[in-house]
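Morning run. Coffee first, then this:
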Amino acid sequence: MIKALIFDIGDVLHHVNLQGFADWFAEKHNVDKEEFLKIEVKNRVAMDAGEIDEYQHVKNIEDHFLIKINPKEYYDTFFLKYTRSNKELLEYIKKHKQKYKMFVLSNNNP
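And here it is:
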């Protein structure tokens, strides 16, 4: 019998439009979108593993492309414009919260 439900944040409770974010970033900084995606994902994996923090993440991208990035703008744009709540799942959770224990277990960054 199921007694608890465990959810992740990234791409479970929240959906991320990484392609849209890459389009925005590539246009704003005049860099190759595919190259940005490669570096972005590599650094997010390192961040999720605890190897770097969000500041080093941005610095690594700056160093790779030889550009200057405003970290606040970078993360605000990512989270406010290209991340959205999974409303269907949140409704499911609300509907079943009395029946099951609910937990969030995530390595989400930042």
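The radius of gyration is 17 Å. Good start to the day.
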